[in-house]
Amino acid sequence: MAEPQISKTFPVKPKQKPKPRTPKQTPESKYWSSFKTKQIPNLISSINSLTFSPAAPHSLAAAHSTSLTLYNPQSLFSQTSKISFNDVVSSASFRSDGRLIAAADLSGLVQVFDVKTRTPLRRLRSHTRPVRFVKFPLHDKLHLVSGGDDAVVKYWDVAGETTICDFLGHKDYVRCGDWSPNDSNMFVTGSYDHTVKLWDVRDKDSSSSVTEVNHGKPVEDVVFLPSGGLIATAGGDSVKIWDLIGGGKLVYSMESHNKTVTSICVGKVGKLSGEEAQQYRILSVALDGYLKVFNYAKMRVTHSMRFPAPLMSVGFSPDCMTRVIGTSNGIIYAGRRKSKEDVESGSDEEVTKYERRLKRLGSRNALGLGPVAEEPRMRVLKPTSFRYFHRGQSEKPSERDYLVMRPKKVKLGEHDRLLKKFRHKEALVSVLGKSKNPENAVAVMEELVSRKKLLKCVSNLDLEELRVLLLFLQKHCTMPRYGRLLMGLTEKVIEMRADDIRASTELKGLIRNIKRAVEEEIRIQLSLQEIQGVISPLLRITGRR
């Protein structure tokens, strides 16, 4: 009688091991990781400020020690110019056209320079204490605002080198400020008195602000978000988002840093397509050495990066190509993405062997009648050659091609072939004797359980095959992954083959070994339960804190 066959084969597979809970890298994480980081070292001291020019090519200005250094991001951050000061430079800001740059130092002086010639054009001196920030408006070329340790915010007329108005609302050091992207008359300032104030330069009352919010910690930095109705403040270990149009309502508080957040800026995911295209993010750096990217549309951190030193400043270029981070030990970590122009220029440099051979021969032939421009001839394959029968196999399909996939042949093991023929006992003996992987043996046993044939196979085993089964149970019955199946099988084997075990001295020894392994496992589990009883109250107390 012919043996029954199964129409389609499904190989017996062991159960998959649990995978670790490692988060999958998202497209946005790949975007931020695409910035290839390069170090700009030897800048003497802490990087107090990093700012980009609004105009192309978006030069970078780094304030460190008593110097203000300008870099060109397109030429791998080569230094273009350096401006020296008499005191430590604390802040810098480009004008909207990128031709002028204002810088403040700890002597209380604010200076305006021509970017190309580095010539000081204006010297604005009115602060009595160190100046901590200076800022040009986005749509105004004639004014700027500054604030410092004298708790005074000054609104300047740059052309006349005079103060138009002094804002006296803060009670402690003024550390930061930013202009509204929609209105050149509105700006915000942050202070160590925990408050952030919104000012209007048209309001003649210098002591009253339009809106005030309390961050709860000394404010280190504040920025307007691109919509103009929201601001982000950094202080302590948190970054908070406030709704100014709603009267200063707190929208969200991000508390993912472990130490003081020193600087924040707004960056854009500069993709051409996709869900994340043209969306803004808040970049924050802190003394814990972490850079965090915060998606304030979904209110979650989308990317995090660790650096080996405390971070003091962060900047992001308007063209979404450059990201810079300043540290406390005088190193700038500058990351730049490859643009399409960079890729094309790189591919142009790679010439073929034929082109290089033509260059070596020269641009003219022996008679001087013009350049040699012969194209290489295509090699014709003959039907007698080996390559003729394999032509086209390395061709890649185009976008419009319909692929017809060749079905993969399923490779079966010996136990799978025996199960396919319903030879259950032989399949069990085969996997126990030849397979070194216990997962395959357990998988065959589970298949036999589903077919209700495992106990019948055990009852039909001879003494040698029974010895192999007991040896397998001795090694693996106490493993947690297989314990539920193998412990029950061990009890059934002892119960069904008790007479054979009593008659064989070798089988008795295997049973004694199984008993010792089970007793040892029980002792281990009891000791683990005692340890768990000691640790559990401690974990509860820690969770309450």
Number of helices: 12
Shape: elongated
Radius of gyration: 37 Å
Q: Mind summarizing the main beta sheet?
A: 4 strands, antiparallel
* N-end to C-end Cα span: 75 Å
Number of strands: 28
Oligomer: single chain
Strand content: 25-35%
The structure class reads alpha+beta
What is the mean pLDDT? Answer: 83
Portion in helices:
25-40%
How do the strands line up in the largest sheet? 1-28-27-26
Give the uncertain stretches in residue-range form.
343-352, 363-370
What is this structure, in a nutshell?
This protein has 545 residues and is of the alpha+beta class. It has helices at residues 27-33, 340-349, 353-361, 386-389, 414-420, 424-434, 438-450, 454-459, 463-476, 483-496, 498-503, 505-544; strands at residues 36-40, 47-52, 60-64, 67-72, 78-84, 89-94, 100-105, 109-114, 120-125, 131-135, 143-148, 153-157, 162-167, 174-179, 186-191, 195-200, 211-214, 219-224, 230-235, 238-243, 249-254, 261-269, 279-286, 290-295, 300-306, 311-316, 322-327, 332-336.
